[in-house]
């Protein structure tokens, strides 16, 4: 386990990234709310049963339709975030958007976290992220964000699933550098010390970062002690359940 204040600082930095994305999206929503027409065009968009129907209706201009769908999506989020905090059409809107722009990584990430954290609909968030990974199977960023979604799952972390996606991200060229840390950390926190030890060993043997190698060596020692003494708590400590808020 990453010890004490060091772990808190690293997790806090990850939360800051998520919050910053939320702030940016909220700012875009506010701009869209002021600059775009009223809800009628958005309602017209939601009448389509799928993104494929919108693509057909775009008459050869899917990129323009995707741009409009993105603006409508953040407008919808902004309107309901400031009013009733109900997001009954959000999954449908982001499904249309990502069908029009299947490689638009930010749409999957923002939509999933908005659905999970603001819309209180984690299954819909999962569906959106799974769609993103099916359409972008080599995206290290999406794999990492999927892992992070499970890591901060409202109501309880899903550490095993989180670790699987962090590992997947660490194997992709565009996977965030922190994937290599989060993979063994979440395996360790889930209680799978054997796999965690192997992952920390890979970090220690392959990383060119002295601080990361030192961290890996320290955690390997903790895991060995836990295994030798039978005291799992040496290497595994309970984590609080976090909540990532997408703020105005």
Give a structural overview.
The structure is a single chain. The chain is an all-alpha fold. It has a domain at 36-131. Helix content is 71%, strand content 0%. The chain is built from twelve helices and no strands.
Q: Would you summarize the structure shown here?
A:
The chain has 248 residues and is mostly helical.
Descriptive labels:
0% strand, mainly alpha, 12 helices, elongated, 248 residues, disordered N terminus
Backbone CA Rg: 20 Å
> What spatial form do the alpha-carbon principal axes imply?
elongated
Spatial separation of the terminal alpha carbons:
34 Å
Specify the number of helices. Answer: 12
Structural class: mainly alpha
Oligomer designation: single chain
> Helix share of residues?
over 70%
Largest sheet: none
Share in β-strands: under 5%
The low-confidence parts are: 1-5, 15-61
User: How many strands in all?
Assistant: 0
Task: Round the mean pLDDT to the nearest integer and report it.
Answer: 77
Order of helices and strands: HHHHHHHHHHHH
Question: What is the element layout, followed by pairings?
Answer:
Elements: H1 4-35, H2 40-47, H3 51-57, H4 62-81, H5 90-100, H6 105-118, H7 122-135, H8 140-151, H9 159-170, H10 179-189, H11 193-206, H12 210-229
Helix pairs in contact: 1-4, 3-5, 4-5, 5-6, 5-7, 6-7, 6-8, 7-8, 8-9, 9-10, 10-11, 11-12
């Amino acid at each position: 386990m990453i010890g004490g204040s060091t772990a808190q600082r690293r997790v806090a930095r990850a939360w800051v990234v998520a919050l910053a994305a939320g702030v940016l999206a909220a700012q875009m929503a506010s701009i869209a709310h002021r600059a775009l027409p009223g809800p009628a065009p958005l309602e017209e968009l939601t009448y389509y049963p799928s993104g494929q129907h919108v693509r057909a209706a775009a008459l050869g201009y899917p990129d323009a339709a995707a741009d409009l769908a993105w603006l409508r999506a953040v407008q919808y989020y902004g309107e309901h975030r400031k009013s009733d905090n109900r997001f009954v059409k959000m999954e449908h809107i982001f499904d249309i958007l990502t069908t029009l722009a299947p490689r638009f990584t930010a749409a999957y990430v923002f939509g999933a976290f908005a659905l999970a954290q603001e819309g209180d609909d984690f299954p819909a968030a999962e569906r959106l992220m799974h769609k993103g990974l099916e359409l972008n199977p080599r995206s290290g960023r999406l794999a990492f964000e999927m892992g992070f979604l499970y890591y901060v799952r409202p109501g309880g972390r899903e550490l095993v699933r989180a670790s699987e996606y962090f590992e997947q991200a660490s194997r992709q060229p565009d996977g965030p550098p922190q994937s290599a840390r989060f993979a063994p950390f979440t395996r360790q926190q889930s209680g799978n010390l054997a796999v965690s030890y192997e992952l920390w060993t890979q970090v220690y043997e392959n990383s060119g970062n002295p601080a990361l190698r030192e961290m890996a060596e320290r955690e390997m020692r903790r895991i060995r002690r836990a295994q030798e003494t039978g005291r799992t708590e040496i290497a595994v400590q309970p984590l609080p359940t976090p909540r990532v808020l997408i703020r105005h």
